[in-house]
Design goal:
Chains A, B, C, D: Its EC number is 1.2.1.38. The structure is a homotetramer. By secondary structure, chain A is α/β, with parallel strands linked by helices. Helices cover 29% and strands 21% of the residues of chain A. At the B-D interface, helix 1 of B face helix 1 of D.
Chain lengths: 363, 363, 363, 363
């Protein structure tokens, strides 16, 4: 069967990437694309690379226009999805690329986002370890899916195997990311101008204020499997992320796309090299889109450009007493739109890799 | 008076930058430039941006040709300076931009470099805290100066004030650097090709193997001032860097120049925010070329392009229990050639900022 | 049926891109990949983005190893294909991505390349006007195909409709191209280092010496259809490119991939705006992979990244008396590997767009 | 003596670069900096690279605040200078970096800019050939100076020697420029976002609509010296630019700064190679900041980054019957702020190169 789809936020970067992937999906008919201020204009004016969709016109983003499709993708600024999701109760499958349905903790939402809190949906990172299994299992048949934050899923995938296996100490995680500006969207802000980004590395949200921090804590907490963890979760906090602390610093670098996350955590006492490497091998050895590179190899973002692949390299630095994981993803694919489409495939019972590529566009 | 100068390695990036700075120095006459395989060719063919030096021809790099100058700059591949320094005993001032005269520990040299060990020279980072004072004091009248490694001096400057003041715990430092490829020199290696670097972030030397690691440990150890530190130094190791551990990861990003180092360390027990910020303010408040930005501000590498300035921003992340310092330098200026010229000015008793600019070329 | 394929030069950029496209081709089995100095190593070490081909090992490039496949792709340095093509007489289809089989004129070959001349093969630019028709027709059933030079096909596609229709004067063509360095291959040359290419625009082969010039002249001459042209061809020269002159200047700019060619020629006397625009619309109105943008629109290379699309915008500048055509292609796809695969599809009678995408990866 | 200076538009790119240069000028005191919406804020927040000017605060841009200085620089959007220049009659020297006082032809102004026409001021490109001499002579003692358009001065300098000497035919000039986005200023427009500019080449103002076209025609017309030209100017048009036609296409490429202009024109009948090359050598042989490279050499924008230098390479392509000139400038220095400061130096009788560097910052 063919599923009809509506994509909101279709003139933005996340919406555009969802469309690029869906345009190659044999089971999908892109019926409706919507936008805000650009409504009424041809899609191709805002997404000139989407040649095969030149016939589509941007409509208003209203519940009425989004309703009546088998699947609705929401690619809206944070805080705007909620008003639509309530009114789209009849839509069989909704996937939100925004943050509105990601967090379980009201306190975290209030502190990092603010505004109305919305119920958390199933988290769209299939390969992520989750209470002894994977998030994938929860996505089968899901009807409401929260696509991940691009930085958050990159860091969570990087370290979750070690947290799940208990071979790293999650109380002192440090993650520094080289990121392309497309993750910040098409908004007209001075610091996103080309002249401000070309030939320079620019840090932002330094010191524990980035909105993806609680999302990472939540994902890593959910990766834990021991009884102690379970009990601590029920008794001590809503999100169960005690003992998980992360110093998180993103740095804008001069590439349109890509995240290269360098994440590290102290080696857990007694963990052998085999324990450590084995944890990641066990977690991702059978995965198509999350791959651990051989010892001594580390990925480049070019290797995953346009692909749904997360590549990671792992080093055990005994002198510094840290496990270091370097992970490359395309923020718009595996970080956002690819995660959304992969999750959709799982939810619908389609082949998980449909319309997704594992090979990057390099050089 | 005017000092006569010879610059070896003049067709490379470090040598070229030394020449760019010296060309604007009123007390310096650039008399001789030397190279290896390019000897016999006009300098301008290899440094087409150095228009004012178009009259110079590259000569062979031999002790005979380098001798007889007031000052000799060595900008040679690591391991090659030693053969010249022994033969240039009569030269009043030699400044080595290579690593040969940086390390005090033979063990570190053997492990990270190998080959013949050479005596350590005075370290050319004037602003760096050193046993209660600054390295500057040691540079006055110095005759043999080791210019720093670009990454090493950036990280050392970032954290030394906190180590000196005891407000951070140096046993779990994590530093991740976005760096431009000019720091790797003009060598013809596949991973340095433009096609491999454009539009991508590429990690290298992951997991504790980068050669600048012992240099950072040594510099931070020398920043300590307490009795306990002193005694531990004398009793426990040659270099006195016990208790200093660093996880260090450089990432090549698509800019020709620049280092943006994100460094963090645990907050020392009991250290207040005022203690912490005060340590950096005390260390750099009077410096021209090392500046702490106001709270909440962080630097970009563009802000220091072509300048001898190190700009740093500091955040205290209590949730992660870490002090985070983000520092921007131009690797070829403050990281190498500027450090060399600034140290030369001090050694000769000239105004410290002669031929050096504090304003970057941005955007 | 499934065709077995061997790709030589598989560790280079052109070879890698052929593999990336073929990896997604349902009718192709990539059986053999060969290289020169890298033989014996896993392909994935040299093409870390080709995750789905991680099982392949690079073999020696010899006629014996290349023989026995249904299709052989040659992605070798110019001048090296000939030695293999003679020995591979039994291979049903050979596609050469090098220059060896492109030129019809021995004089041009001698002047721009030198070394042994080889017979011209069918030119692999299907959409290119050719003596009243298209090159496509000649590709049906072809067994020996010369993939085009990336710059050459971009310029030829840009102007051929105007030459064919007689609405521009081909005796004073000017073409200036912004190009990414991947077109120059993975060779270790100083001017291709990242430090030399980041943040700068670098011209090369200025003043009429670029090797793609005779290829453009030949392609545009073949686009002509009038009797006068035909007779001039037969009587006056081997290649029939009298009256076709081009000033051609490529400029390396800081993007790994992409060609943006700005080409112009004088307006032919009497040609109306409708005549001019109509010529391009007639030539490309039905094409999938070569598209003329609406009046006032011009393409960016980002819009065709990773895609087999050539996008062009056309302006008629009466004040300057020139038709200006700006064309964007991905040099490794439409400029090389995509042209090769598209031509292969036609030669084999497969759907022309198999394994090729029309949508670019942007931003 | 020290001249007091006010710089308007000080939070923008042109204003920032004027300040960067003046900060190093021994005869200048930067007393006042003004802005529009950013008035009241510290300059350093908008120009974080100008460390030596951290004490300055942005004031309102009003005639009252600008008055009372020895020199006023106007770095305002086109069309806004006029309102100030009328009210600043008492200011001894005003230099306008905008377009308002560049054009002599009311018709050109109306067609390419629109709004109120203002009297042309002395054109601030000292090295430009002008009726048998140079523009420099007109700048001595000038009190009202129009700094050039960055693209316009680059192209005019490229070709004026050939026009003056009659060795090229100015009726069919073609110029294609690779340009960095800083020339477009800090305005918040979607096409200037980093995500839209990184990794891509983007043409704009194609087909004869760019505002610098009439400025080039005017400058090249003024380079002519023959009687015939003079008479034609008086009898046939206000600006005397008959017979000068230019096809002009700028292409944004991923570098913050820089212009690489590839300009060509037909060889005049009978002109020998010596005539042609001699024309440029005669024009620029004695210049410091405009340099013709040796035969076969062509410049890169990196070679002039941050410098006031225009480097040009010249090729004579007899096959294409064109003289090709490739010129590199830093659009913010030689293209704007450097031209302004150099002109100021001449007007005031100071050394022409004061505060200006000839060496670029490379790599």
């Amino acid at each position: 069967m063919t599923y009809s789809v509506a994509v909101s936020g279709a003139s933005g970067y996340a919406g555009g990437e969802i469309l690029r992937l869906l345009a190659a999906h044999p089971d999908i008919e892109i019926r409706t694309v919507t936008a805000h201020s650009n409504a009424g204009q041809p899609l191709i004016e805002h997404q000139p690379h989407l040649r095969s969709l030149a016939h589509l016109e941007l409509q208003e983003t209203t519940p009425e226009i989004l309703a009546g499709h088998d699947i609705v993708f929401l690619a809206l600024p944070h805080g705007q999805s909620g008003q639509y999701t309530d009114a789209l109760g009849d839509v069989p499958l909704i996937i939100d690329a925004g943050a509105d349905h990601r967090l379980e903790s009201v306190a975290d939402w209030d502190r990092f986002y603010g505004g109305s809190f919305h119920d958390p949906w199933t988290y769209g990172v299939p390969e992520l370890p989750f209470r002894g299994g994977k998030q994938r299992e929860r996505l089968v048949g899901a009807t409401r899916i929260a696509a991940p934050g691009c930085n958050a899923s990159t860091v969570s995938l990087s370290l979750a195997p070690g947290v799940a296996a208990g071979v790293i100490d999650p109380s002192d995680i440090v993650s520094v990311l080289a990121v392309g500006p497309s993750g910040a969207g098409k908004s007209l802000k001075p610091h996103l101008l080309g002249s401000e980004l070309l030939g320079t590395a620019n840090p932002y949200a330094v010191g524990g204020v980035h909105r993806h921090i609680p999302e990472i804590r939540q994902a890593l907490a959910a990766a834990r499997v021991t009884d102690a963890d379970a009990s601590s979760r029920s008794s001590r906090s809503a999100t169960g992320d005690e003992g998980i602390r992360i110093s998180f610093t993103p740095v804008l670098v001069p590439m349109a796309r890509g995240i290269l996350a360098t994440s590290s955590a102290p080696i857990a006492p007694g963990a052998t090299d085999a324990d450590i490497r084995g944890a990641w091998e066990a977690a991702y050895g059978d995965e198509t889109f999350v791959q651990l590179l051989p010892e001594g190899s580390f990925p480049r973002t070019a290797d995953v450009l346009g692909a749904n692949t997360a590549l990671m390299g792992l080093a055990i630095d005994r002198a510094a007493n840290r496990v270091v994981v370097v992970t490359a993803v395309d923020n718009l694919v595996k970080g956002t739109a690819g995660a959304a489409v992969q999750s959709m495939n799982i939810a619908l019972g389609l082949s998980e890799d449909r319309a997704l590529t594992v090979n990057g566009v390099a050089p």
